[in-house]
């Protein structure tokens, strides 16, 4: 999730656990710090955009490492404020703020390596968009009241915000399962034999959902929303460039970066050659024909694909036009994607 959501969740948990044992602002401050801390890996630059992508949400999002870090942080905070008798309580509060950060990220589609150092498999349910106001606003409202009122009633507001945000997460997971059923029904009705199917919400909401189905060398993309009049999904097919992949696997242009993207995306990738440059895109984020993570990985020279230093070529979209389409489509209007 975005940094504001993570900060709000950490601060809310800090206040909920510490209660009236310490000042509300202290609990909110340190909970927010720990809720944000794992995302400091975004500042790391490995000199390669592909490596930067696959190593984000890696070691700093490990449940194991964060659990080991929590007692040391709690001891430092307790001593700083002269509250060593509350050390164990600080430990619980800060551990929850740290631990829930990668768990919240797991609900997005990006891929979080929760099990490091034992496994580097990226995990993601994909039931929440990375920015969702309906998740974040209850946390901010409850926390804000708790900071202003500084009373038992304010603490109850904080708890209510936390409960509402958790309920929204549960709704997102249930909604995703329903849309998966709609997607399977639509795919079967249209004779599309999908090897794998991705169902994830469109930007900023859990009403309109994006569906991507992989059928061999073809990706089928469609949208379905809870305000649509029926269960029909209009899929748009586009090629995935499997022939290029076969050529790469057999030729000198095979490279580690491409394999990293294939694994990180869980098989939801596309290859295309644009003006002699081979580009690979992660199909999970964005929508056809523009995707957030797309990289140039090889160049054709004398008829042969030669590896190049990866370059980020993704994310070029008309945001205003996309938002206008999104608003209309969420309301159930059957419009072709921009």
Quickly list its features.
338 residues, alpha+beta, 2 domains, 4-stranded antiparallel sheet, 10 helices
Structure in a nutshell:
The protein is α+β, with helices and mostly antiparallel strands. 47% of the residues lie in helices and 17% in strands.
Q: How would you describe this structure to a colleague?
A:
With about 350 residues, the chain is of the alpha+beta class. The chain contains ten helices and ten strands. The chain folds into two domains: about 5-105 and about 125-175, no CATH class; about 190-338, no CATH class. Strand 2 (about 210-215) and strand 3 form a beta hairpin.
Topology at a glance:
Elements: H1 3-18, H2 24-36, H3 49-55, H4 63-80, H5 87-106, H6 133-149, H7 152-189, E1 196-201, E2 208-215, E3 218-225, E4 236-239, H8 242-250, H9 256-264, E5 269-274, E6 277-282, E7 286-287, E8 290-291, E9 294-301, E10 304-312, H10 319-330
Antiparallel strand pairs: 1-2, 2-3, 3-4, 5-6, 6-9, 7-8, 9-10
**Which H/E pattern describes the elements?**
HHHHHHHEEEEHHEEEEEEH
Distance between the termini: 25 Å
How large is the radius of gyration? 22 Å
Give a count of the beta strands, DSSP E runs of length 2 or more.
10
Helix content: 40-55%
Strand content: 15-25%
Task: Indicate how many domains the architecture comprises.
Answer: 2
In this structure, how is the largest beta sheet organized?
Answer: 4 strands, antiparallel
Instruction: Give the mean pLDDT.
Output: 94
List the strand order in the largest sheet. 1-2-3-4
* Content-based structural category: alpha+beta
* Individual helix count: 10
**Shape field:** globular
Oligomer: single chain
């Amino acid at each position: 999730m975005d940094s504001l959501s993570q900060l709000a969740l950490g601060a809310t948990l800090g206040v909920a656990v510490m209660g009236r044992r310490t000042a509300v602002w202290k609990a909110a401050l340190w909970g927010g710090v720990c809720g944000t801390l794992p995302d400091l890996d975004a500042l790391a630059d490995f000199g390669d955009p592909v490596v930067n992508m696959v190593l984000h949400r890696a070691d700093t999002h490990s449940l194991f490492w964060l659990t080991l870090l929590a007692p040391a942080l709690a001891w430092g905070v307790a001593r700083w404020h002269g509250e060593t008798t509350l050390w164990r309580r600080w430990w619980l509060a800060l551990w929850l703020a740290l631990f829930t950060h990668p768990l919240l990220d797991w609900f997005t589609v990006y891929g979080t390596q929760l099990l490091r150092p034992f496994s580097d498999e990226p995990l993601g349910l994909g039931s929440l968009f990375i920015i969702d106001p309906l998740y974040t606003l209850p946390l901010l409202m409850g926390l804000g009241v708790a900071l202003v009122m500084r009373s038992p009633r304010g603490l109850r507001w904080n708890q209510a915000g936390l409960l509402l945000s958790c309920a929204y997460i549960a709704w997102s997971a249930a909604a995703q399962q329903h849309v998966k059923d709609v997607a399977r029904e639509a795919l079967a009705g249209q004779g599309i034999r999908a090897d794998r199917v991705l169902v994830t919400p469109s930007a900023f909401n859990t009403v309109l959902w994006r569906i991507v189905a992989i059928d061999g060398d073809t990706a089928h993309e469609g949208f379905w929303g809870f305000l649509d009049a029926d269960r029909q999904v209009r899929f748009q097919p586009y090629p995935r460039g499997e022939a290029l992949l076969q050529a790469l696997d057999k030729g000198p242009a095979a490279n580690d970066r491409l394999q990293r993207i294939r694994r990180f995306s869980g098989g939801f990738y596309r290859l295309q050659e644009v003006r002699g440059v081979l580009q690979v895109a992660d199909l999970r984020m964005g929508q056809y024909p523009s995707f957030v993570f797309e990289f140039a990985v090889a160049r054709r020279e004398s008829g042969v694909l030669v590896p190049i230093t990866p370059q980020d070529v993704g994310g070029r979209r008309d945001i205003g036009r996309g938002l206008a389409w999104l608003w209309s489509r969420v309301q159930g209007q059957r419009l072709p994607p921009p």
